[in-house]
Amino acid sequence: MATLEQVAFRAGCSLATASRVLNRNGPASDLMVRKVRRAAAELGYRPAGSSAGRLGHRPVVGVLIPSITNPVFASSLSSIQNRMLVAGHGVLIAQSNYDPAREADAVAALLNDRPTGLILTVCDPSTSKALLAKLPPTVLLNNLPTAQFPAAVTANNRGAGREITTFLIGMGHRRILFLSGNFAASDRARLRYRGYLDAMAENGLTPLDAVQIPFVSGYDQLDLGVAMTSLAPTAIIASNDLLALGVIGALKREGLSVPGDVSVAGFDGIAIGRLIDPPLTTIEMPDASMGATAASLLLDMAENAAPARHLDVAYTLRRGGTVRAI
After folding, report:
1. Boundaries of each HTH lacI-type domain copy (predicted)?
2. Yes or no: is domain 56-155+288-313 CATH 3.40.50.720?
3. pTM of the model
4. Top-level CATH class of 1-48?
5. Residue 78, SS3?
6. 179 by DSSP, 3-state: which?
C-alpha cells in the first residue's frame, strides 16, 4: 500500500503539504492540490480513516438531489451509480426535498463519510449555504457554475424556456401562462421562466406573471379555477413534466379538454409523458447523460487532478399531442 511519504515525494512537496491537501485541513495552492491528488491517484493512496476503510476498502462519492422520487433525478442518479460502479466507487445519497434550509445539513452528513468528491444539485447556487463549507472536489449538476465551484454539468434551461414558448407562439398562442414550482426552490424553473419572458418580449407579447406552487406535494389536487377565470390562457407551460400532468388533471376537473380548450407543455421528457393520451409536448432534458457526464467529470477532477470545467448538454423539443394550433 502506498504511503503518504511516497505521495509527497512524487508530488514534490513536503509531508505536511500532502497531508493538508488529502485531508482538506489547511491551505494549499491550486497547482499543489492538483499535483498531490494526481500523485495519490497514480499510487492508489487513500488517507487513513477515509470512507474507503468503512465500506470494504471502496471509496465513495456523495450525491445531493432535491428529490429521490422525481424521475428526473432518479435517472441522473442511476447513471451516476453505474459510472461509479465501473470506477470502483460507492455512492452516498442525500435529498433536500427542495428545501434550501436542509441542504447544508445534507451535505454535512455526506462529508462525515469523507467522500472522494461531491455531485450537488442545489436549489440556488448563488444563495446555497451548502456551498459555503470547504468541500472536496465538487461538480454541480443542473446548476450553473459559480466562481467558487466552476465545475458544472447543465442544460440550457433559459434557452429551453425560450424555445418551448416560441413554439407555442408559432402555433398561434398569445396568452401563455407559466406555472411553476417555487423559484426559490429551483433555479432551473426560474431560468425556464426567464426564457419564457425572452420569447414573449421578442414577439411583442405581454407576459403573464408566473403562478408558483410548492414542488413537493399537491400536483394531484391542483386548482386552476381562479387562474383560468382571471387570466384566460390558451396555453400553459409547466416548469416540469410532473407538474404538466397535474395541470392536465386540473383542467379536466374544470371541464376543459387538452389540447381542445387549452394546450399544455412541460420540461424534462419523463417516460410517463409519452404514455398518456395524447403524449405530452415537452423539452426533453438529457438527465441520464448529464448524470454520467457529472460522474466522469468528478472522477477526472478527483483522481486525475483535471481542471474544473463547465459542460453543457443539449436538450430536444419533443412535439406531442397536448399542443394544438389556434
Report:
1. 2-53
2. no
3. 0.84
4. mainly alpha
5. helix
6. strand
